[in-house]
Amino acid sequence: MTFHRVHIDIIPDLPDRFDLLFRSYSQIKGRMLTNLPLRLLLLLLVLTFVSGSSAATPPSSLVVSACAQASYPSVCVRTLATSSPSTPSDLALAATSASLSATRGAAAYLRHLTLPQAPSDRAAFRDCANLLPDAADQLARAAKELARLNPDTLRSQLGDAQTWASAAMTDQDMCLREITGLSGRTRDAVVARVTEASHVTSNALYFITRVAATRDRNR
């Protein structure tokens, strides 16, 4: 018999599925359903749970092997698990797109945040919030360039993409520095989101740099 290991980090709704399973069991028990044996009902629930979990798309072998050398391997696999890259440039584009999505998400969170009352704290959060849209713009430019790579202009295009991704990381790091000295749950939530975006961007920059290095070696 072959057992397949389920990677928890690529099934983000796993806790919700467990919660649904046990809530469903409670409902069945509470209603005292007698038309079907309880064991059969529970088996049906478990089968539903397992089939839903198996629907999660595992990362491709290319993603797993490429992410092994990235700055943040587990973040890399998780954010690229649903992508289907076939070349190193595809990986660079997918990673940059994931970085753009994470950065926009962090920016949106900050934009709708209720700021602290202390003037210095409010200023720190505002400075951080002003940096993230610029980071997103830089990543959007990088993704656009990576989506239209041309053999005749490949070197300059990759150089531009590296510059923009690096600038985005600088914005993200500056945002984190602005709020490092603060405390509280709001600060922790912002740090978690911006740190995630920064890690994804670092991975994207790694893939862009790798494509550029491969191109230079093949000249």
TrEMBL record:
It comes from the Eukaryota. The keyword Signal applies. InterPro entries: Invertase/methylesterase_inhib, Pectinesterase_inhib_dom, PME_Inhibitor. Residues 58-207 form the Pectinesterase inhibitor domain. Keywords: Signal. The keyword Signal applies. This is Pectinesterase inhibitor domain-containing protein. It comes from Ensete ventricosum. The lineage of its organism: Eukaryota, Viridiplantae, Streptophyta, Embryophyta, Tracheophyta.
